[in-house]
Amino acid sequence: MKEGAVESSGGALPAMPGPGRAMARAGWPLMIWGGAALVLLLAPWLLGGASGNAYAVTLLSHLCAMTVFALSYNLLLGQTGLLSFGHAVYAGMGGWVAVRALNLAGDGLPLPVSLVPLVGGLGGAVVGLLFGLLTTRRGGTPFAMISLGIGELMYALAAMFPGWFGGEAGIATNRVVGDPVWGITFGPDIEIYYLTAAWSLAAALAMYGLTRTPLGRMASAVRDNAQRVGFIGYDPKRVRCTMLVAAAFFAGMSGALTALNVEVVSAESLGSMRSGMVLLAVVIGGSAYFVGPVLGAITVTLMAMALSRHTPAWQLYLGLGFAATVMFVPGGIAGFAADQGRQWRERGWRMLSVPYVLAASGVLVLVFGTVELVEPLYRERLRLGQAAPVPDAAAAASGGWEIGGGMPWWMAVVVMAAGIGMLVLARRFRARAEGGQDHGSAVSDRRAS
Predict the structure, then answer these.
(1) Residue 303: DSSP 8-state
(2) Could you read off the pLDDT of 260-280 as tens digits, one per residue?
(3) How confident is the model over 198-247, as pLDDT tens digits?
(4) Closest-CA residue to 96 (of 143, 191, 161)
(5) Per-residue confidence at 29, pLDDT binned at 50, 70, 90?
């Protein structure tokens, strides 16, 4: 009998987890959140510090704000099963309220800059409550279409009332208001980054805790079967509305953090482009896991802010990545990593090493061929439009070598075909390895019996 098992009339029963194991399990979340806090603390200094790479610090601030935005969206999509095409409304209105409040603070309103994200969150929650009472009566496709209509309505209203919303130019603000506290004015980028990081970590912790509450569990039940939830005495409409208000609050906080970073809010912050970006982030990262939207937010932000500096085709690459995720990795980055980790534990690295090497090589070859085909086409389009040439991503990564200069289009197609062939071969190797292990397990079971 195994150590710790309990003897009974039916044989040995599995042992209950001991105190040490339970404490170890309870300590994992603390270690993960502590590690996240440490990363946020050290990230700007690893990238150059306060007087080093200012662009990197700004990028980190946008990463934090986008992470909160994506996590708030996943409260609807992943937790409650509500597909929204107008989530940018709550982030945009939160940013608008934050900018208005900041301007009032400059006129004498006793509001610390450090509390402006909370004000933006409250603004987003109010708008979420107003729209949630109307939109959450139904889930599924009706909710998605109504959210799309509300998003377009708010964008049109922002354009119709420029004196209220700022029009195309937006509403500018100045985040350096009030007297400094301990020498902190929130003027330097490094100071606003740490404010953004602190609020982002607090918001992520709050959303993680919300998913563990009875409300979060009930939202998952509404997602799976709203009719059954109604049968046991709960109102699915009320659960949806409450989760929408919570998601709108955190989205408004994200919009306020973004407004503090760029010191302006415009009608574009309410548009469908921003709603589409957060949807891409959650799907690419994986909506079934809490960390999925974080990974998706990092991916989308890096493509929008870093890759866009090197190539005008970044939106095409983002779209291709989204399509590939939906078709081949429906669980997103987080789901794929969890599945591969499970396979690694069950089958071992020896059996999966060859498929992994082939798959990784195939992806690299396919991406290289795709870039070789796309970049010359974009350069030609810019040349015909008499626009200024834009350096491409591969040239920046290869020390100035001009992509497409020595490879005709048909060769790029051949390279892409080779990459696809390597991926197909990797899939066959993996299927053969899995089949061999299953056959060996069946033989062992027959021998044991």
Answers:
(1) I
(2) 998 889 888 888 889 999 999
(3) 999 999 999 999 999 999 999 999 999 888 988 888 899 999 999 999 99
(4) 161
(5) confident
Q: Is the pLDDT of residue 4 over 50?
A: no
* Cβ contact 255:93 at 8 Å: yes
**Per-residue confidence (pLDDT) for residue 399, from 0 to 100:** 42
**Amino acid at residue number 443:** V
Dihedral of the alpha carbons of 71, 72, 78, 80, in degrees to the nearest 10: 160
Paired strand residues for 264: 172
Q: Which helix (H) or strand (E) holds 12?
A: strand 11-13
Structure tokens at 100: 């208005």
Q: Please tell me which residue, 16 or 117, carries the higher pLDDT value.
A: 117
Contact 69, 247 (CB under 8 A): no
CA–CA separation, 271 and 101 (whole Å) = 22
Burial 388-426 (b: 16+ CB within 10 A, else e): eeebbbbbeeeeeeebbeebeeeebeebbebbeebbebb
User: Strand 264-265 to strand 171-172: parallel, antiparallel, or no bridges (unpaired)?
Assistant: antiparallel
* pLDDT value at residue 279: 94
Is the pLDDT confidence value at 410 over 50?
Answer: yes
CA distance linking residue 175 with residue 260, whole number of Å: 6
Cα gap 111→117, rounded to integer Å: 11
Residues in the chain: 449
The residue behind tokens 């534990």 is 345
- Pairing state between β 11-13 and 6-8: antiparallel
Is residue 369 within 8 A of residue 418, CB to CB? The reply is: yes
What is the DSSP-derived secondary structure letter of residue 188? S
CA distance 144 to 154: 16
